[in-house]
């Protein structure tokens, strides 16, 4: 009889997302997206990841060096991971930041960070940062330093999740 038996993968994901969204509604919406990339000798190379309100984690890494292929991974993370992610973002102080005095994206590349936390929505865009010395030369070194360290923390979390769940080297 149709409809009976084991649920499909799509049905399991939909149910997981529904349960997660119900738990999230008590705490407010939460979303994080980060992108860093450039267009150069090897084409469009980038790293991007996002954590969606339903707990879906998406990762993409495109490096055309030596004919590399794009790596795309998706997984669902539980509420404990999202809670830690929220804590990392809150502790960074980035929600009160402003990117107006930060370096503009240029031919060397760009970084974007978007965060939705409850009723707050921020979006930052700046050039690639190679070192803390570049941060110190900025017109807003404290704000850019917060951004720099937050991005480092987020990337560590993402690379840990990738290496735990998939047999790839994300870097």
Which key terms come to mind for this protein?
171 residues, 4 helices, six-stranded antiparallel β-sheet, 6 strands, alpha+beta
Can you walk me through this structure?
The structure is a single chain. The protein is 37% helix and 29% strand. With 171 residues, it is of the alpha+beta class. Strands 4-3-2-1-5-6 form a 6-stranded antiparallel β-sheet. Strand 2 (43-51) and strand 3 (56-62) form a beta hairpin. Helix 2 packs antiparallel against helix 4.
Q: Say how many strands there are.
A: 6
What's the overall average pLDDT, rounded? Answer: 85
- Order of strands across the biggest sheet? 4-3-2-1-5-6
What letter string, H or E per element, gives the SSE order? HEEEEHEEHH
Query: Any idea what the shape is?
Result: globular
Low-confidence spans: pLDDT under 50, at least 5 residues?
Answer: 20-26
- How many H/I helical runs? 4
Helical fraction equals 25-40%
Structural class: alpha+beta
* CA-atom Rg in angstroms: 18 Å
Proportion of beta-strand residues? 25-35%
Task: Report how far apart the termini are.
Answer: 48 Å
The largest pleated sheet is described as:
6 strands, antiparallel
